[in-house]
Amino acid sequence: MRTIVAVMVIAGFFGAAAQAFAQMDSTSYQIRWDTVGNGGDDVSSSSSYILKDTTGSAGIGDSASASYELGAGYRPGISSDVLDFSFFSEDSATSTAATALAGLTIDCDPTDFSIGDMIALLQDRGEDQVTAIGQVVSIGIDSITVDALKDAGDMPAIDGSNDFVAILEGESSALSTLSTSAVRTSVIGMSVSSSAPDGYAVQILSDGDFRDVAETVNPVADGSVTAGSEEYGARSSDSDISSSTFDSADSAITTSFQTIADLDAVVSNDRNFLVTKAAISPSTVAGSYAQTLTLIVSGHY
Length: 301
Fold this sequence. Notes:
The protein is an all-beta fold. The protein has one domain. Helix content is 0%, strand content 50%. It contains no helices and 24 strands. A hairpin with a 4-residue loop joins β2 and β3. About 2% of the residues have low confidence.
């Protein structure tokens, strides 16, 4: 009997484009911005409010031309930029059968779930899988309810036939034991909050092939990971990516950064997900195949 086990280890990082400020500096000090004023406080606060104020400044305010924007004064130089990134990975070896979906309520055994859990809802797990993700906000006797369901254009239709709900957590993702008769999948959920005026991008790269020492599973090349063919790749829930094919096809994860999600707007808790997929052929060599994936988010300023 041949056994082929697949595991991915995932790391996440932040990146941000810098903003430019006029500044003065010397060997030992740097003044990034300054103003002539006569009062104020960098930060004052109460139990309910935070105030940043400056008084007595002249010539302050916002102005713009076709090519430039100017925020004049001391306050525009104090940045409270937000760039927050979280990711959550599925272990496909552990999941719970889902029997129905009504609005945001999923009928299932709620024993293993807690309020606050990120979950993936899976219709027809495998080659034709339809996925959505959300966060558990309440738990019933035989159901869980989520705050929202982010899908990839099609909402899962749950009828209890090969349908599951899985917790998304941790930094490793197991595709479990691979088979010549099925496509194994695993979901990586993502959430981004960004105050960058031109949005953000999440990119991915691998540390090499999906491999076991010298043996590898071929990266997908025809746009679809298919049962019985030795292929490995992924597809994003973001349906509008201009710089990669992850939005429209199962795509190879390479050693160069590729975009798997982006948005040109200020966002809070913007969710997407990546579905990784693997299949083997009768000639695939038995072993434990693994790969390290790196995700990085960058704000567009």
